Backbone:
């Protein structure tokens, strides 16, 4: 029996004493290698872009990657690791307990210790790697090998390094010999097909670093799938590596990959045309999407058109055509907010199955709306695994990490055939979060559709540009949607795609038309001016209100006349203040609805549903009459609602245009009932957007905004842009789209706009510009250096857990607060929400300083908290708030959300 068969690789927890107590280390390594081989099988879409980028055949990449995975756990041959468990298996030798397992990075880092510090490995490197004897490796080849090893040794979700640790601190000489003997036998078994000529080429090493990100993600996935006891049951019976590989590892790996749907891309249907697929005649933008030439190389589309022009259907048209041609195998929709992702999911879930052949069962997942989660997906992709014994509290087993990662629907959505979620989940792929590489794998080969891209601040825009660069490198396709995009932002997005294609020259914009469809591939760039659908082209009158009482009177009066009205405020506390004032003045307070970000997911979904029932496309007079909606910025993009009357607090011009898109959104008769499209235009009184803003003056005081709307002044800090917005609206007297949309945007955001800002507001302008540059610089600092490849130094800010660094840069971090209650026996903490996924549905995301003002969990219930965290590890990253919730300085109610009865309207940093 080979000595390397006397080491354990996976062990059962102490309280699980049925079946084999452990899985031998070489067998676990072969399990993972076999999964990797199946993931990179010729029929699978995984790795195709990697093989193409490296000039390798599919077989070459498969054999090399399988070998790398077979040695991913070399560090477990150490005495210090073997002493972490004592499985009662006769074949496993007893470790020397005198070794201390205290190395940063755990056993993954010990793999590097062996490779770099063990004389046994140094002396046998050619045989260990399976390199041809007649072609000893040059320096470039060794560097390429180490770049590849980064991906396998980093299988716990982030790169590791050996530091200054000596091999003798963890390994006996017999351990080093066992590990090297195993590696050499594995090389003979798998026979990695090294491209000897390419590996000696320094330029090939450069290309290799660019694709190590995707290989690292596949290594994580292979390790997780290969650690599933339900498929790879423990084996302690000694046998040859060849026998185990053929009789156990490969058959089980094929079963695992097939049952999870990773064995081949879904077969797509041919796109039949917009009219046939959707049942209506295409808009000009949709006609363009039907006909635009698709490139066989990575391609970016930017679709700019007014609200209601059918941008979503145009993006779906492009995605379906790309699927049909085999240029992509899935789709991910990234939206700016949870509410918009919920709305998009509702639309996509009605037709996504028609993208694929009838015998296919494509998976779809909503990343945030847990209540609507497609339950079948939990079974089809990464189901819960029987758990192995953890190594240390800070180093958990692969099955434990896998279970926790995929318990979060936000992450699981990235590996679905069709995922819908916030754009944050995609942006995290280019940040130094643990397991970010798995997000890259989920993104690879998909059509990335990002809606409302104008909603990105400078921090998010910089990260989005990094994602586009990455996606182009991975051979992907992307579709960006917007109604209000400044030219400067469009140029940055196009240049990011160019960089990903490896094109050095920055792209110069040729067209300032609107609407506009832009296509960029390696071969060409085309900007196509388009007309818009006649039914959404309109002139929307603007009226300036300079007293809050005017807004209050207008909203209440409109409801009393049988109309429905909406007031969009810029802070949560301002919205709550208006909500309470309006309820006090109307005869039926229950007809007033409040919507902002400080609701639990359960209440938020109820409010969304109620808003759609009252104000949605299918609402009629009986639903709408006398109803009032008070909300914050969540209404800008979130819901397909149609209001008779709208008031908005002053905001930058692009946001006002977005808000105005909810005013007379659908054609209705004079009572508010929906009209068939054939009946022509809207029969209500012409729409008017009322904007609550301070009185306009050409010489405003420094506190022009803050004196009148302090919350608005705190949220939108560039008061010069607010002044420019109000000046443009007063000058025009109307929002005319599409003809004047570009002019309005550039009047506020264009390169010459700052010259028109009054001197008294210049300070806020320059302060804001400084913040913008700071945001971009911070994003550049936080984002991964993709050129360096998957290594520790690629993270300038250091590799971190997912709770430490965010995709949105605010004054302070946001945290999740989970509302809990005691059960009747006071023996358990329970979520306040019922139904599926009650813990997710009981959470609110708020800023840190506000969360700190909530009452601490009483000491007497800390044991219950510890028990809860043991059962639901993900809750450790949230703060528990124990009811009752109707007392104290801060309260919670399903109708008002989280609020302070003493300070409503006064906290100017309130979330939207």
Residues:
């Amino acid at each position: 029996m080979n000595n390397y068969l006397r080491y354990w690789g996976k062990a059962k927890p102490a309280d699980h004493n049925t079946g084999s107590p452990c899985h031998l280390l070489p067998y676990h390594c072969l399990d993972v290698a076999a999964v990797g081989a199946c993931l990179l099988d010729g029929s699978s879409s995984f790795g195709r872009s990697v093989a193409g980028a490296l000039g390798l055949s599919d077989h070459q990449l498969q054999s090399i990657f399988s070998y790398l995975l077979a040695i991913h756990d070399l560090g477990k041959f150490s005495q210090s690791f073997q002493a972490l468990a004592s499985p009662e298996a006769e074949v496993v030798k007893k470790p020397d307990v005198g070794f201390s397992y205290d190395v940063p990075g755990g056993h993954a880092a010990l793999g590097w210790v062996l490779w770099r510090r063990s004389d046994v490995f140094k002396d046998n490197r050619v045989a260990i790697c399976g390199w041809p004897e007649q072609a000893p490796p040059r320096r470039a080849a060794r560097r390429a090998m180490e770049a590849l090893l980064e991906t396998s040794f980093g299988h716990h979700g982030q790169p590791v390094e050996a530091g200054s640790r000596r091999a003798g601190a963890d390994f006996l000489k017999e351990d080093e010999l066992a590990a090297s003997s195993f590696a050499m036998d594995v090389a003979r078994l798998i026979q990695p097909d090294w491209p000897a000529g390419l590996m000696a080429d320094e330029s090939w090493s450069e290309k290799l670093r660019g694709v190590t990100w995707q290989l690292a993600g596949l290594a994580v996935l292979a390790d997780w799938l290969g650690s599933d006891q339900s498929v790879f049951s423990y084996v302690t019976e000694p046998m040859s590596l060849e026998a185990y590989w053929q009789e156990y590892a490969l058959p089980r790996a094929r079963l695992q990959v097939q049952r999870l749907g990773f064995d081949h891309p879904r077969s797509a249907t041919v796109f039949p045309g917009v009219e046939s697929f959707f049942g209506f005649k295409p808009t000009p933008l949709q006609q363009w999407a039907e006909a635009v030439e698709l490139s066989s190389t990575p391609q970016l589309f930017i679709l700019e058109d007014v609200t209601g022009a059918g941008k979503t259907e145009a993006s779906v048209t492009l995605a379906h055509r790309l699927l049909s041609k085999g240029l992509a195998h899935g789709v991910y929709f990234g939206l700016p907010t949870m509410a918009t992702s919920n709305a998009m999911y509702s639309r996509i879930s009605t037709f996504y199955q028609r993208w694929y052949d009838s015998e296919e069962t494509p998976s779809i997942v909503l990343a945030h709306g847990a209540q609507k989660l497609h339950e079948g997906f939990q079974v089809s992709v990464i189901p819960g695994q029987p758990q192995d014994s953890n190594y240390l509290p800070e180093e958990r087993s692969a099955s434990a990490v896998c279970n926790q990662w995929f318990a979060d629907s936000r992450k699981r959505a990235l590996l679905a055939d069709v995922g819908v979620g916030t754009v944050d989940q995609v942006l995290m792929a280019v940040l130094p979060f643990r397991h970010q590489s798995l997000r890259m794998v989920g993104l690879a080969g998909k059509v990335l559709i990002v809606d409302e891209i104008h909603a990105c601040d400078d921090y998010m825009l910089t990260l989005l540009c990094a994602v586009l660069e990455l996606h182009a490198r991975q051979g992907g396709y992307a579709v960006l949607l917007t109604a209000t995009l400044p030219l400067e932002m469009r140029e940055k997005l196009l240049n990011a795609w160019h960089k990903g294609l490896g094109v050095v020259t920055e792209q110069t914009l040729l067209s300032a038309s609107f609407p506009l469809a832009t296509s960029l591939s390696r071969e060409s760039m085309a900007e196509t001016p388009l007309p818009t659908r006649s039914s959404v082209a309109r002139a929307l009158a603007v009226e300036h209100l300079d007293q809050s009482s005017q807004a209050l009177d207008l909203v209440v009066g409109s409801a009393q006349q049988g109309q429905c009205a909406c007031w969009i405020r810029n802070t949560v506390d301002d919205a709550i203040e208006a909500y309470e004032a309006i309820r006090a003045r109307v005869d039926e307070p229950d007809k007033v609805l409040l919507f902002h970000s400080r609701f639990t997911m359960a209440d938020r979904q109820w409010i969304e549903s109620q808003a759609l029932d009252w104000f949605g496309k299918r609402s009629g007079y009986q639903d709408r009459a006398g109803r009032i909606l008070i909300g914050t910025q969540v209404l800008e993009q979130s819901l397909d609602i149609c209001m008779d009357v709208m008031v908005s607090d002053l905001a930058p011009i692009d946001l006002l245009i977005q808000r105005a898109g909810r005013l007379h959104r659908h054609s209705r008769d004079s009572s508010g009932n929906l009209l068939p499209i054939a009946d022509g235009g809207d029969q209500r009184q012409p729409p008017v957007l009322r904007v609550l803003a301070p009185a306009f003056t050409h010489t405003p005081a420094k506190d022009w905004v803050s004196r009148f709307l302090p919350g608005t002044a705190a949220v939108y800090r560039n008061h010069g842009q607010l002044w420019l917005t109000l000046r443009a609206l007063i000058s025009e007297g109307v929002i005319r789209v599409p003809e004047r949309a570009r002019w309005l945007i550039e009047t506020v955001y264009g390169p010459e706009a700052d010259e028109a800002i009054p001197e008294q507001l210049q300070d806020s302008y320059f302060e804001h510009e400084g913040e913008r540059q700071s945001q971009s610089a911070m994003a550049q600092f936080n984002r991964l250096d993709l050129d360096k490849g998957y290594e520790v130094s690629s993270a300038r800010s250091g590799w971190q857990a997912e709770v430490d660094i965010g995709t949105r840069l605010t004054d302070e971090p946001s945290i999740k607060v989970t509302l809990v209650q005691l059960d009747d026996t006071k023996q358990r903490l329970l979520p306040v929400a019922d139904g599926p996924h009650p813990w997710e549905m009981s959470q609110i995301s708020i800023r840190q300083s506000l969360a700190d003002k909530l009452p601490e969990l009483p000491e007497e219930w800390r044991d219950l908290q510890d028990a809860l965290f043991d059962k639901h590890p993900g809750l450790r990253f949230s703060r528990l708030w124990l009811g009752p919730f109707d007392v104290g300085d801060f309260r919670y109610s399903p109708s008002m959300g989280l609020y302070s009865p003493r300070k409503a309207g006064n906290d100017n940093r309130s979330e939207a």
